[in-house]
C-alpha cells in the first residue's frame, strides 16, 4: 500500500499548517490552551511570484521553497513538522463499501483492488490512502471506506518543498477537507443542526472552490475559474501598473477615485453573479432546493462590498468566516491585523488543526 502521508491519520504535536496556493504561502501554528480552547500561537504569509504555482502545480520549486523558508523565519516558530494540503483537483476521492471485519492486510488488498477501478493511472504511480468511515447505511455487515489517491509526483513535489526549506512533512491533507474542518469548528450549526445546509465559497486568486454541507457531511463540491486576479488584471490595464504593484495597491486601497465605480463595482457584480450561478447549478444538479447559510472565505472574502452584494443577490444569510473565532491569541498576535487577514487562512488553519487529530 502506497501511503498518502497519513492523509486521514492523526499527527503528533507540535505541527504547523502550511498552505501553498497560487498567490502565496500561509503558515499557522495552534496550541491547546486547555478546557477545549485553542490558542493561535502565530501566523504568517509570504507572497509568491506569478507563475511559481499554477493550477495547484508547483512550477518553480526554488521560488516556492524560498517563500516557505521566509514565512517560517518570519513567523518566529521553531516547529519543523508540517501538514500540507493538496488541491482538490489533484486528488481522486471515492467512497466504497467493503465487508466489515476485514483485517488490516485484507483491507489494504481490497482497497487497492477497488482503487484500480477508479484511478486512471497505474497504482505504482499514485499515493493511496484510505479511512474506515463506519458501518454502511442499511447494511450492518458492510462498512463505508473513503479512499483517496493522488499522482505520486504531485505529493512528492510538496514534500520536497518542505524538505528544501528545512521542514518535515508528516501529514498530507486535501485543501477542501482542511477548509471544512476549520469551518466546522466555528460554525456550530454544521455539527449541531442536522438539517442545516451550509455553502462555503473560498474565493482565491484564480479559482473559487464551492463546498455544500448538510449536517457536517459534504453533499456537493465544485470549482469555478473565478478569483481576485481578475480585479488585479483590471487594475493593471486601467492604470498601467505591473501586476505586483496593482496587487499591493489593491490591498492597501491606494487607487484613484474612479477605481470603485469603474473597476471594483463591476468586479463585485461579476462575483455575485458567479456565486448565484453556482447556487443555481447546485439546485439543478442535486435533489436539494435550499441553502440555509452561506460563508465566504479566501483572500477575496474581505473585499469591501462583496459580502453585502452576495447576501443581497442570493437572499441567503451570509457571513465572512474567520477560522480563529473563539481562539485565544498569543501575545505576539495583533488582533486588528488578524481580523483583516483571517479569511485567507481557512486552509492553513484546517491543516494546523490536524495536530489535534
UniProtKB/TrEMBL annotation:
- The source organism is Massilia eurypsychrophila
Question: InterPro entries, per this entry?
Answer: ATPase_NBD, FtsA/MreB, PilM, SHS2_FtsA
Per the record, a Pfam family?
PilM_2
What are the SHS2 domain coordinates in residue numbering? Answer: 15-183
Checking SUPFAM superfamilies in the record gives: Actin-like ATPase domain
NCBIfam families linked: pilM
This chain's protein is named Pilus assembly protein PilM
Q: Which GO terms describe its biological process?
A: cell division
- CDD domains, per database record: ASKHA_NBD_PilM
